[in-house]
Design a protein that fits this description.
352 residues; 5-stranded mixed beta sheet; elongated
Length: 352
């Protein structure tokens, strides 16, 4: 385990259980740059911290033990709020997944918590028998089993890391506000870059294929066909991606329906309507596409938007696992049918 070689480690403590690395509470430029990259989907699955025991400041046997995941964005959010404190940090191996998602998947769970506590020999390190877990980790942990297997009681901290200083100053007592999970406009906006990058991975190749097919399916010169016949399909492809990945989260509370697939559908309708309003005559007459092909790409736009809108179910407080599964069983076949029918109308309209 190469804990000491990690760039945020600034020293070490000699303790009763051996050397423990000390971590910085001020984020470096590389930390901010890495966070921006991860928010855009760059290096997401390798943005991890070595699991194990860390120290903040100069903690002793009475110091509080905080538990977090080894997703570096979560780890950085935690340590950056602990300046001037003396604490122990126990990092669980969640395979680079954040606390909330890892709790749902089981990697931030009872077995991993007990194993790490025993490996770190917490019972020899601290004299108290309480460990503080993030509240969003609660679905994965059974406190009574933790107490039975390693002798530590579980205390749940606030949802947001920025509330930790007040929580600690209140002798680990949370206020009602600390227990409330929000899904604000800013919190939804931060999800947009990675969704756009992920969508671009398939949308860009699809766009290139559309250019190629448009050039081959037209009756005139290849490049003339490619430019003219692909304009509306590319507009609707981009519109579907933007509607599902950008407008759905930003307009979440204004869009009708409870299902995210329905919200994505309505966002797609808004974008498609805007496209028809701005480019209506061009779409119906100027592109050389028959009406069936225009309608086909409207269907594809709505299906794409609806499907991408469902990506935000895991980031919301409004969904449950059973609800998501039910929505997928209903929505995915309809979205698939919309794409197939739309593609059929597009190609069929060019030939008949």
């Amino acid at each position: 385990m190469e804990i000491a070689r990690q760039p945020f480690v600034i020293g070490g403590l000699d303790t009763a259980v051996g050397p423990v690395p000390q971590v910085a509470t001020t984020l470096a430029g590389s930390d901010w740059l890495g966070a921006v990259g991860v928010r855009c989907g760059i290096g997401r699955m390798s943005y991890t911290v070595e699991p194990g025991l860390y120290a903040v400041g100069d903690p002793d046997g009475q110091a509080t033990v905080l538990v977090t995941a080894n997703y570096k964005l979560s780890f950085d959010a935690l340590r950056s709020e602990l300046s001037g404190r003396n604490l122990w940090l126990l990092v669980l191996d969640t395979f680079g997944i954040n606390v909330w998602c890892a709790a749902g998947k089981g990697s931030f769970g009872t077995d991993e918590l007990v194993r790490r506590a025993q490996e770190a020999r917490l019972d020899q390190l601290v004299s108290h028998r309480t460990i503080v877990l993030p509240q969003l980790g609660a679905p994965g942990v059974a406190p009574h089993l933790v107490r039975k297997r390693c002798g530590f009681s579980v205390c749940y901290g606030p949802i947001l890391a920025r509330d930790l200083p007040e929580f600690l100053d209140r002798s680990c007592k949370a206020t009602p506000t600390m227990r409330r999970k929000t899904f604000t406009w800013a919190e939804r906006l931060v999800l947009v870059p990675v969704e756009l990058v992920n969508a671009a991975k398939w949308a860009v190749p699809v766009g290139l294929v559309l250019l190629l097919l448009s050039g081959m399916l037209g009756k005139g010169d290849f490049w003339q066909n490619a430019i003219q016949l692909s304009r509306w399909p590319l507009l609707m492809l981009a519109g579907g991606v933007l509607a599902g990945s950008v407008f759905t989260p930003l307009l979440l509370f204004a869009l009708p329906g409870r299902a995210f697939s329905a919200k994505g559908l309505f966002a797609g309708m808004l974008v498609a309507s805007l496209g028809l309003f701005v480019f209506g005559e061009e779409a119906l007459l100027g592109t050389g596409l028959p009406l069936a092909s225009v309608i086909g790409w409207l269907l594809i736009c709505l299906a794409i938007s609806s499907g991408l809108g469902m990506n935000f179910t895991g980031a919301s407080t409004f969904t449950s696992l059973s609800g998501v599964k039910k929505e997928m069983r209903l929505a995915v076949p309809i979205q698939t049918a919309g794409i197939i029918i739309g593609a059929g109308l597009w190609v069929g309209g060019l030939f008949f």
